[in-house]
Amino acid sequence: MSNIESLITPEIREFLTKHRNPGSTEFADLIGKGGYIPPHPDLLVDTLAALMMGKNVLLKGPTGAGKTKFAETLSALFNQPMHMVNCSVDLDAESLIGGRFIAYKDEKQVIEFAPGPVIKAMNHGHFLYIDEVNMAKPETLPLINGVLDYRRMVTNPYTGDVVKAKQGFRVIAAINEGYIGTVPLNEALMNRFIVIEVPYIKGEELKGLIRSNSLLKDEKTIDLFVRLSQDLILAASQGKVSEEAASIRALLDACDLSTAIPPIRAIKRAISDKMEEESEKMFIQNLAETFF
Ligand SMILES: Nc1ncnc2c1ncn2[C@@H]1O[C@H](COP(=O)(O)OP(=O)(O)OP(=O)(O)O)[C@@H](O)[C@H]1O
Ligand SMILES: [Mg+2]
Q1: Which tens digits make up the pLDDT trace of 137-155?
Q2: Pocket test residue of 33, 67, 248 for ligand 1, highest count of atoms within 8 A of CB
Q3: Is the pLDDT of residue 14 over 90?
Q4: Domain residues of the chain, as ranges?
Q5: Is 67 in the pocket of ligand 1 (CB under 6 A)?
Q6: pLDDT of residue 2
Q7: Of 90-99, 146-155, 178-187, where does mean pLDDT reach its minimum?
Q8: How far is the centre of ligand 1, averaged over its atoms, from the C-alpha of 68 (Å)?
Q9: How confident is the model at residue 182 (pLDDT cuts 50, 70, 90)?
Q10: DSSP codes joined into one string, the chain
């Protein structure tokens, strides 16, 4: 955490000190651990600025770029518990808002309401993280449009209560464009967010991440993996391989495996065999052979 804090401008730091949750032990396990390394300081500073002003943030980037890690790091920086929603085509009002269930009180049946992540985050003034926001059916998320704009409120369809978000409530969403099963994000929904592009990290930042987050400790090999990654990012940008070939998650797996098996095989298992096209697999293996 101290590393990332050094990237924050003095103005933002002062703001952050003011906006930081002074402490909540009840939900301590929902506070993120941190660990995100931004590719450049602006990305962090802009995101913090938006959140401090009470705006919603949409993290947009390819798979394994650290979007979820970034959200957890924001939760850590603000010391704010974060409730999570994972979107899928099955996401419905209940999985967002909550649902009714039958309980027994003094041996009598009663209907109770169990709040879902949206209501919990609003009631406590916590963070809400909506992952894979474009995996949801287009008609589901508009249910919370009012939560995402200046109203910061929703009518609970199960109880009829109007829920207003407590101070501190913020929404962070993540989107992985182009992923199979995703739909373009509804314009009105997109309009309610500040968009932060989260690219794959490179160079010295990537070296630091490999050192701290993988089993690989040999500096020479780390350097080769960083160069491989750079070439994969370039190849992906030129359309020679799909974007996920450059995933940092896959690269970290390859680094781990390379401590037990030859790097070429590690790259095959962790990176190239995930590709659909034979030509992509070949391209990556050939590229790997130029390094290892
Ligand atoms: N910039 C980064 N800083 C720290 N960790 C990173 C970074 N980029 C990738 N990682 C690491 O890569 C792995 C994947 O990160 P994460 O799950 O946050 O990606 P994601 O963008 O949410 O991917 P997906 O779209 O598949 O959910 C984690 O182990 C994470 O620590
Ligand atoms: Mg994620």
Answers
A1: 888 888 899 999 999 999 9
A2: 248
A3: no
A4: 2-197, 203-291
A5: yes
A6: 52
A7: 178-187
A8: 6
A9: low
A10: -HHHHTTS-HHHHHHHHHHS----STTGGGS-------SSHHHHHHHHHHHHTT-EEEEE--TTSSHHHHHHHHHHHHT--EEEEE--TT--HHHHHEEEEEEEETTEEEEEEEE-HHHHHHHHT-EEEEESGGGS-TTTGGGGHHHHSTT-EEE-TTT-PEEEPPTT-EEEEEE-TT-TT--PPPHHHHTTEEEEE-PPP-HHHHHHHHHHHSS---HHHHHHHHHHHHHHHHHHHTTSS-GGGG-HHHHHHHHHHTTTS-HHHHHHHHTGGG-SSHHHHHHHHHHHHHH-
Q: Is the CB of 60 within 6 Å of ligand 1?
A: no
The per-residue pLDDT for range 15-47, each reduced to its tens digit, is: 888 878 877 678 999 999 999 999 999 999 999
Distance of CA 265 from the midpoint of ligand 2 (Å)? 26
Q: Is the CB of 21 under 6 A from ligand 1?
A: no
Ligand 1 neighbour 199 (Cβ under 6 A): no
Per-residue pLDDT of 212-257, as tens digits, reads: 999 999 999 999 999 999 999 999 999 999 999 999 999 999 999 9
User: Which ligand is in closest contact with the Cα of 35?
Assistant: 1
CATH number of 2-197: 3.65.10.10, 3.40.50.300, 3.40.50.2300, 1.10.1670.10? 3.40.50.300
CA of 201 to the centre of ligand 1 (A): 10
What value does the mean pLDDT take over residues 191-196?
Answer: 94
